[in-house]
Every structure is written in structure tokens, then in C-alpha cells.
Specification:
The structure is a single chain. By secondary structure, the protein is mostly beta strands. The chain has helices at about 125-140, 155-160, 165-170; strands at about 15-20, 30-35, 50-55, 60-65, 70-75, 80-85, 90-95, 95-100, 105-110, 150, 175-180, 185, 210, 215, 230-235, 240-245. It folds into two domains: about 15-110, Immunoglobulins (Immunoglobulin-like, Sandwich); about 125-245, no CATH class. The chain is built from three helices and 16 strands. The strands form four sheets. Strands 3, 4, 6, 7 and 8 form a five-stranded antiparallel sheet that branches. It is globular and about 55 Å long. The N and C termini lie far apart (about 60 Å). About 30% of the residues are buried.
């Protein structure tokens, strides 16, 4: 097993990388490996595994199984970055590496635990409960969605402290909010360039805003009672706010618009 020349072990991201013998007989480019806890070596199941190109655009999305193993088929040769994310762990990524024709690569990645601080003075939803709820809502585990972030407890309380309005709260959580001609929450960037002219529409592509799973017009963001919000989730281009009394066993997309 020889180390691939474009990869160098990185203490913060990489456990091992090896080019499988007999790779020339493999028709498709493939990366396989395992995601493990950096402190005890335990497997990390249901971690999101993403392959990004040189422009850091996601080209392949997958997830590790319950034993921490994953397998992704590459879209072709080129240079890529591998990123893993999981609630309760710091996001991790490999350096830029080259994938050659017919190559099969083994990449094991460590993830460092991220303590999830909870405010002892208020009831907060447990990680497992939140993941189970969102998995049923989406039809897939939220950890497999690039950009999945959750804020609650002290983290959310700190963002609310001293914020002048709801927009400021979200910005303190690194969730973009704009107040131009169109109000955007969790914006996804500018429009796609026109294939013929190359013109890029300067109007931001906006994410959706939900309160207790009910769609809320983004321009009504300041009418939300932010003091009642106990969990903030950024997921798949949408920002989802949940009140402290939200019933995590109840799944209904109908109801009074809370904003």
C-alpha cells in the first residue's frame, strides 16, 4: 500500500490515505474509508461525507453507515477535497488531492468531539431527538446535508444577548440575512450566470424561513417572538426556528403562520 503523492497526513483531518493495489483494474474512481472519533477511535455513524471540487462546490454527497464506513464514487478525474460533518463534532476536511483514472483510494478521517453546551436553566431538545425528528421530516438524516448547523442553549442565549433585533441574532449565529429590495434569510449567493451572455443576476438566491415547520415570509422576520425560540437549525438552504414548547413528536405542516 503506497501513499498517494498528492495527500499528506494532516493531524487535524487525516488518519490515513492509501492507494489500493491493482487500482488499474477498477473502472470507476472510488474513495472508501471510515470516520472515527479522534479521542477514542470509536466509529462515527451517519456522518455527512462530501466531495468538493477545486472551487469548493459539492459534487458528491454521502454518509457513513452505523459502523462509520463510507464509500463514494467520484464523478471523474481531477482535484478534490473531502469534508465530513456530524452534530456533536467539529467539521473536518482533507487537503486538496488528485484523483486519477481508475483509482481507488482509502481515506480514514478523524473527527474531534465538539462539546454541545446546554443551558441548565431551560429545557433543550436532545441531539438524538432533534436528529430523529428532522430525519422523519426530510426522509434522510440531516447530517448528510452539507451546511447542517444547530444552535440552542448557551450558544443561542449568547447570540440573543445584546442583539438589537432578530436579524442581528441570526447574524451572530453566522446565518446571513439581508434587507435589500428583497429580504433574504440564509441566502445561497447570487443567481446562476446566463450560459450565452455570462451575465449574473445580482439578486440573491434566498433560503426559506420556517417557525415550528410553518413557512414564514422572510420579510416578517422581525415579527417573530425570538425570546420564545429555543432551537435554531440551518439546513439545506433553509433556516428553521423552533419554540421551547414545540412538540417534537408531532409532525404537521399546517397551522397558523406564527409571524
Amino acid at each position: 500500500m503506497a501513499a498517494h503523492p498528492r495527500f499528506r497526513p494532516n493531524a487535524s483531518a487525516l488518519l490515513a490515505l492509501a492507494l489500493a493495489t491493482g487500482a488499474g483494474s477498477v473502472e470507476a474512481q472510488e474513495i472508501v474509508g471510515r470516520v472515527v472519533d479522534s479521542e477514542n477511535g470509536a466509529p462515527i455513524g451517519l456522518a455527512g461525507v462530501f466531495v468538493l471540487d477545486g472551487e469548493r462546490e459539492v459534487v458528491v454527497a454521502s454518509a457513513s453507515d452505523v459502523a462509520g464506513f463510507y464509500s463514494v464514487e467520484m464523478p471523474g478525474t481531477g482535484e478534490y477535497i473531502l469534508i465530513v460533518q456530524r452534530l456533536g463534532y467539529f467539521e473536518n476536511e482533507t487537503p486538496l488531492f488528485a484523483v486519477e483514472e481508475g483509482g481507488q483510494y482509502g481515506v480514514d478521517i478523524e473527527m474531534r468531539p465538539e462539546p454541545f453546551r446546554l443551558d441548565p436553566l431551560e429545557v433543550t431538545v436532545r441531539n438524538e431527538e432533534l436528529e430523529r425528528y428532522l430525519t422523519l421530516e426530510m426522509g434522510s438524516n440531516p447530517n448528510s446535508v452539507f451546511g447542517y448547523r444547530v444552535f440552542q442553549g448557551l450558544l443561542l442565549a449568547e447570540a440573543k444577548l445584546g442583539a438589537k433585533d432578530n436579524t442581528d441574532v441570526l447574524r451572530r449565529l453566522f446565518i446571513p440575512v439581508s434587507h435589500g429590495r428583497t429580504v433574504c434569510v440564509g441566502e445561497l449567493g447570487l443567481g446562476m450566470p446566463d450560459r450565452k451572455t455570462g451575465y449574473i443576476d445580482p439578486t440573491p438566491r434566498c433560503g426559506a424561513l420556517f417557525v415550528n415547520e410553518v413557512r414564514c415570509p422572510a420579510e416578517h422576520i422581525e415579527t417573530i417572538d425570538m425570546a420564545s425560540i429555543g432551537v435554531v437549525v440551518r439546513l439545506g438552504g433553509a433556516v428553521r426556528l423552533y419554540t421551547r414548547d414545540f412538540d417534537w413528536t408531532f409532525r404537521s405542516r399546517t397551522g397558523r403562520i406564527p409571524c
